[in-house]
Specification:
The protein has 411 residues and is mainly α. Helices cover 73% and strands 0% of the residues. The longest helix is centred in the N-terminal third of the chain and has 32 residues.
Length: 411
Amino acid sequence: MSYDATQVQWDAPVPSVVKQFQTPALVIGGIGAILAIVAAVLDFRQFLHAYLFAFTFWNGVTLGAMVLLMIQYLTGGGWGILGRRAMEAATRNIWLMAIFFLPILAGVLLNKLYIWTDTARVHADHHLHQKETYLNVPFFLGRLVFYFTVWLVWAHFLNRWSLQQDQSGDKKLAQKLRNLSGPGLLVMAITMTFSNIDWLMSLEPYWFSSMYPLINMVGNLLSAICFTVACVALMSDAAPFKGLIRSKHFRDFGNLMLAFTMLWTYTSLSQFLITYSGNLPEETPWYLNRLNGGWGYVAASLLVGHFMLPFAVLLQRQVKDPGKPLIYVGAFIIFMRMVDLFWWIKPTYDAGHGLHAAEHLSHFNITWMDVVTPLAIGGIWVWFYLRNLQQRPLLPRHDPNLKEAFAHGGH
């Protein structure tokens, strides 16, 4: 079978197998939002603890998709062309994440989330006072505006020029997208690094790690590729993908999932080994809080579920070639990614702070708010995502690498 552009159903709608998730997502998001508001009224501080975890995950999927999109423009890989619309749909949710940040912003302004927002405590603590030049509310707000402005601008032009390419077929737009993606990856690396420091690592300002932002960025990319693969695999039996997407494409998807799983493991293990070998009182409490009091079981589940199982499964060619099994593998990895972020964030609030934090170790606990907030944000995010997906053709018709992408699959 050869590639014939005249036989491709370019204007085929989003398959019903994907659209059917839109209404349930809105219902789940709506109910979750109502319960989240109730949670905020009952205990705003506890609500913020759960909300930060939920926001971090879904914001990570959004930003990870934009990074993957730019990587695809630079590499020209066939895997990315087939998943481009799925990635673009996710990037157009960045404005939504800016709105979802408002409760966290309220927590910062009301001194409910970070200990460094407490001016009296900062002035009384030498270690916090030393970091006040960076960790202060006005500078935090300025960086926040900068992050979302940069992300929104890059997402705007990535989507705008892609749509113009679809409409006009101008080959110069492909070069413009590549030119935008090169510096864009550097900008994303910088902004994602500092946003991770601001929003997550500063939860425990006595502790620091040079690997921490990188681990989270790799996790974001892994979540995004799993989400994209699941979406494409669901649509593979319907137009316009039917007959065009083949096992070789899914093998590429599976190999990418495997690569990012291994990279996440490498960076996570590196941080642990560096901390273990250093054995410094300002570093070890972070792991002590996450390996005791029941949290050790969660850590063990991450070792098995975030690395061992996906690694063993994704090595199997018979899992990757059919495509459909990757939906379940991707969903499982996404779940473990949420567990990973929960393990990162939740112990912070139950443990002591300071150089002697290890004397007040956290104990594992999970509340109904920890379940409601991810569902609230996730349901609304998925609804807008599917709405975005329906606004454009599922294949970039005039991309200069499209024919090569299909030829890669054996056409």
